[in-house]
Amino acid sequence: MTTKPSSSCSNSSTSRGNANPGIDDINLEALTLSEGIRDSPVCIIVLGMAGSGKTTFTRSLIQHAQAQFNPYVVNLDPACREVPYAAHIDIRDTVNYREVMKQYQLGPNGGIVTALNMFTTKMPKFAELVRRAGERGHKWCIIDTPGQIEVFTWSASGSIITEGLATMFPTIVVYVMDVVRSSCPTTFMSNMLYACSILYKTRLPFLIALNKIDLKDCSFVQEWMTDFEVFQDALEQEHSYVNNLTRTMSLTLDTFYENLITCGVSAKTGIGFATLIKHILDCVNEYERDYKPVYEKMRLQRLADQQAISFPATVVDEAGTAVPMGLNLTEPTSNADNSVFLMAPSLVPVQMDADTEESEADAKNTTEEQNFQSFVQDHLTAQQNKRDKQQRSQQEQKS
Ligand SMILES: Nc1nc2c(ncn2[C@@H]2O[C@H](COP(=O)(O)OP(=O)(O)OP(=O)(O)O)[C@@H](O)[C@H]2O)c(=O)[nH]1
């Protein structure tokens, strides 16, 4: 097991003092936009609503693709406790999400977004690791994303990662959908709206994995997508205020359904994965045929933008003045000096601080113990004072 660094971001200086190098020490040339889009590895970004089964799906896909595609695996969920597969790159090795929450005074979702932002500062090096994986024979790179879907799909870092990968490697999106939860027409429609918005936002080949078919057959979803009348009938059974909206939406999404590929799977039992892999290969062909020219153009445009002369903020009119954020918020240490570093197998420093969670738990236990002791002490003192007072008043009465 990889030992977790104790600070919010693993500091490159930690690794520099070590016998084992960090990623910044091995003179890793960051992959630049000047290189064209490669043939491999194919990046498969796994998205889906919380609890839809993304992580279980990722594990199952790895198993089914192992022999043929030798997947390189990336976990981008900083908040998960553990993953049921061996990840080659795990965001949790790069950014300590709990420490981020503490230092930046954030709630859980803000912590996840910030952790992802920090990881994204190393995007060129992340891309370089993926490229090297391709050269070592990994034909696929499977990327598991955070539980809260909006954290990835609607954050700047999610876009940077998705577009960054798509301008360097063939990239597709697999949207995992829970068929059991989608048996409610309104939930189905919410899921479809999400899928639709992601499809248009990412502009990548898109495949819907209808997951958990061991619990419920997915043919009803496919029927709802192809036959408007059947969906209307299902909607009639529900008495909800949102029915009108759902009905209108289903009409709007009709054209979107036509271009969608769906595939029933069970991440738990493995049913449907042989077909799913065929669909993934079709999506890769689709990327090569329809999307690659678009991303190639985007890559060249970005390269031109990068090479254009950039003016320092001082010469820009109305550059403005930075103001401190929030109330009494101490600015956390800046990360501009390369203090976030990316870890991958063989780059893990030998000497790491004690496991953060363990030490945090110990500290918490000690504090709780102290709090409890002082509570008992206060209680005993109060009791004693009460007894003394009673004795005094009894003596006064007697005298
Ligand atoms: N029966 C059944 N259960 C499944 C299947 N896939 C996932 N699950 C269960 O669904 C639950 C959620 O699965 P996860 O893989 O953690 O889902 P996730 O989308 O990664 O979850 P978050 O990242 O927390 O949003 C777990 O209890 C899984 O065991 C499946 O195909 N069949």
UniProtKB/TrEMBL annotation:
* GO molecular-function term, one example from the UniProt record: GTPase activity
> Entry's SUPFAM superfamilies?
P-loop containing nucleoside triphosphate hydrolases (SSF52540)
Location of the region described as Disordered in the Swiss-Prot/TrEMBL record = 1-21, 376-399
The superkingdom of the source organism is Eukaryota
Q: Which Gene3D superfamilies match?
A: P-loop containing nucleotide triphosphate hydrolases
Subcellular location(s) of the protein: Cytoplasm; Nucleus
One Pfam family from the record = ATP_bind_1
Q: Which GO terms describe its cellular component?
A: cytoplasm; nucleus
Q: What is its EC number?
A: 3.6.5.-
Q: Which InterPro entries match?
A: Gpn (IPR004130), Gpn1/Npa3/XAB1 (IPR030230), P-loop_NTPase (IPR027417)
- Primary localization class, coarse: cytoplasm
Bias type Basic and acidic residues, positions: 385-399
Q: Where is the composition biased (Low complexity)?
A: 1-15
Q: Specify whether Hydrolase is a keyword of the entry.
A: yes
Q: Which family does it belong to?
A: Belongs to the GPN-loop GTPase family.
What is this protein for, i.e. what is its function?
A: Small GTPase required for proper nuclear import of RNA polymerase II (RNAPII). May act at an RNAP assembly step prior to nuclear import.
**Self-association state and partner proteins as the record states:** Binds to RNA polymerase II.
Its recorded name reads GPN-loop GTPase
* Lineage per the UniProt record: Eukaryota, Metazoa, Ecdysozoa, Arthropoda, Hexapoda
